[in-house]
Amino acid sequence: MALRSDLRVIAEHVKPGSRVLDIGCGDGDLMAVLSQEKQADARGIEIDPESVEHCVSRGLSAIQGDADHDLAEYPDDAFDYAILSQTLQTAERPDLMLDELLRVGREAFVSFPNFAHWQVRADLLFTGRMPVTNRLPVTWYETQNIHHLTVADFEDLLREKGVSTVNRWFFHREREIGHFAANWRAEYAVYQLSR
Amino acid sequence: MATALDTSPSLTLSNALPLDSGQVLENVQIAYQTYGTLAPEKDNAILLCHALTGDQHVANPHPITGKPGWWDRMVGPGKPIDTDRFFVICTNVIGSCMGSTGPASLAPDGEPYGMRFPVITIRDMVRAELALLDEFGIGRLHAVVGGSMGGMQALSLAANFPDRTARVLAIATTARHSAQNIAFHEVGRQAIMADPNWQDGAYYGTGKEPDSGLAVARMAAHITYLSEAGLTHKFGRRLQDRQAVGFGFDADFQVESYLRYQGLSFTSRFDANSYLYITRAMDYFDLAEEHGGRLANAFAKAQSRFCLISFDTDWLYTTSDARNVVHALNAVAAPVSFVELSAPYGHDSFLLDVPALDRVVEGFLG
């Protein structure tokens, strides 16, 4: 199945037979791949009822809910992995969300758009307006991204919280790039984290 | 009162049925309907559980009203609950009046039970259903499915008999009856018991039945099954067959006329004492209380996949009632899906044309 690059890299690094919680699971594409290719026990949380309906009608387990509040209902260590793709920047409190991810999951995958990508910087510098790019396609007044962050910001937060990085990947135009100057070059980033 | 007209197959349970009250029911008769064919491995059975005033006539014309079965749109060949693949079985719950043992049935002394019938619970209904499945040799169900009180049975089955079903689909339901739920039921019961024809429940064979009381009970309950927007859309303040209000107490408004019709027609197919007993069973329902006060404990041994569905306009069993169940299932890491569907019909949405419901039901049953 054709997955978005960040989801593909996550799917490749989930150990077979794991228990996975996909927060913001959308129509369940990642869960479907994890179930089929990794025999994972995948569960999803999704705020959009039509997407949940789509997941359930595909035979996937998904709960209509809100990641900001519903993660609290899960016990500690309920999952091997908690996955939060392209959603951290929409959380009420991304720092608390990160705590929750690593409470319910032994490890977490987090992907987010990098607000320090050179195109974003250039946009802001030269136009003086909030950037609208591939990865940030929505105007400032409509965007759900209420907490923009950069690779450097995220790594600061990980340090503050003492969270370990198991692995990290950076992408530009759906293609993986190296770690060199990632805070300039990466459109978005994927981190595999552990407590 | 309809028992005699019913042509459903029925079966007398081999064993006496122990009840939550401590009493035991002997010679329990269970009326049921089946659709589809039971596979040789007996692994394709779906138990459907009916609601308060429902019955086993899911997908065949009703023997009394002649109307299509209550879930005709959902159950049948090629339908979301596909009888080409699944063996669907629905029993009339004990305490009811469509052929299963209830207050209108004869007690061992040859007289109708009336109010001597023991108070039953949702779990007792489930025990009777499982006893019937035992008679069929069905061990583990493919799924148990129910809406409203049927959903309570589905949840009760999963909690109390966790090895008996692979899937649980509970629609427009709750794990406990709220004070408001109990209050509405009490209005209905008092209406029945205030009817002089009720005669302390011993009205059988007297030629007088508490139809007025039962009709009022049905009218009150029926309001809770509809949404305010639905009622407004359907009736508004429109008048019934007249140009102006009559300055009297006829059914001036269409909504009055509708409710009166619903109440009256209900009495032709339902026994007032059954209404008392079944509403009582629902009021007693509190799955958490049965399991040490914590709902998650009820599901600690659950071995099923769950799917909960609520409707945004259902104010009888609300989305938050469904979410309570979902949270309890999450707390024990049970595989659960949940979706709140948008439909204008209030609680009754689960019986009506909601295409998204069809898709979720079909997808979940696999």
From TrEMBL, chain A:
Superkingdom of source: Bacteria
UniProt cross-references to Pfam families, sorted A to Z: MetW (PF07021)
Name the UniProt record assigns to this protein: Methionine biosynthesis protein MetW
UniProt xrefs under InterPro entries: Methionine_synth_MetW (IPR010743), SAM-dependent_MTases_sf (IPR029063)
Automatic annotation (TrEMBL), chain B:
AB hydrolase-1 domain mapped to chain residues: 44-352
Location(s) in or outside the cell: Cytoplasm
Keywords per UniProt: Acyltransferase, Amino-acid biosynthesis, Cytoplasm, Methionine biosynthesis, Transferase
Pathway note: Amino-acid biosynthesis; L-methionine biosynthesis via de novo pathway; O-acetyl-L-homoserine from L-homoserine: step 1/1
GO terms classed as biological process: homoserine metabolic process; methionine biosynthetic process
Superkingdom field: Bacteria
NCBIfam families noted in UniProt: homoserO_Ac_trn, PRK00175.1
Protein name stated in the entry: Homoserine O-acetyltransferase
Organism in which the protein naturally occurs: Altericroceibacterium spongiae
Gene: metXA
